[in-house]
Design goal:
With 88 residues, the protein is mainly β. It has strands at residues 8-13, 18-23, 25-26, 31-32, 38-42, 45-49, 56-58, 74-75, 77-80, 83-86. The chain has one domain (8-79): Rieske Iron-sulfur Protein. The protein is globular.
């Protein structure tokens, strides 16, 4: 049994009509919280901000947009017939 299971956060960016999926684990705080973060854009790049420390990550690439070396895993998403599929 895996003692460190992967949790995936799924985001529906309604304004952009896009779906994104990332790891739920914040690499800075090591807590499963990114799914509770706020989404938005930075220079056209869709992003999520950790609810604890507000470090922001690209929903497309996982790169930290706050200028630090942290990254998060991102996963491909597709929607078919009202169902959301995440590639893991």
């Amino acid at each position: 049994m895996n003692s460190n299971p992967t949790q995936i956060a799924i985001f529906h960016f309604a304004r952009r009509r896009e779906w994104f999926a990332t790891q739920n684990l914040c690499p800075y705080r090591q807590q499963m919280v990114l799914s509770r973060g706020m989404i938005g854009s930075q220079a056209g790049e869709p992003k999520v901000a950790c609810p604890f420390h507000k470090k922001t990550f690209s929903l497309q690439t996982g790169v930290c947009l706050s200028g630090e070396e942290y990254t998060i895993e991102t996963y491909p998403v597709r929607v078919e017939e009202g169902r959301v599929y995440v590639g893991v």
